[in-house]
Here is the input.
Amino acid sequence: MLTASTPEPSRGPRPSNKLIADTHRRRDEDVADSPVRWGILGTGGIANAFVTDLRLADSGVAVAVGSRSQGSADRFADKFGVANRHASYSSLVADPDVDVIYVATPHPMHHDSAILALRAGKHVLVEKPFTMNAAEAREIVQVARERGLFAMEAMWTRFLPHVTVIRDWLARGVLGELVTVTADVYGPRQAEPGRVYERPGVYRCGRADVHVVRL
Here is the structure.
């Protein structure tokens, strides 16, 4: 998959916005002066969590949301103060105010959602798991590279401070030759009958969003 470089800790000025390549904005613009303009594709729980946390940062702002119904898009937009509301994913990815699409649809829809956005010329951040299989992942990478766009799985653990340290240790051979890695991610999970993942035929690969973090 295409990934951003792990940011180095810095006590100096904030890094420049390197994500946006073709929006007629200078590459050296500070993200505080030119925040990344996000379009939210999907209005479920993870989209709510993403936009809630996005509001705590000055590097980006949610400017548009797309759903399969106008009512859902409006409710989400009203909750978070999002200006542009779209009743279809196609309309969202065509929005000229959007720089990058956050794909927050159910897992089996990640591939199609990401391809839709890339073919509309939008960068993509795809929620975990990236896709349902390797072939789907390869196609997203291929389309992104062909169009010179950014595509990444929303693997937040990659950017945690301790992970930055571990990556540095591995690069410098501090830990020697690794032969076994054990990793666990734990969180209480109760059955939620109303969730889309509990519906028959929608989701058939266990807790892939959690398991992929371990990997």
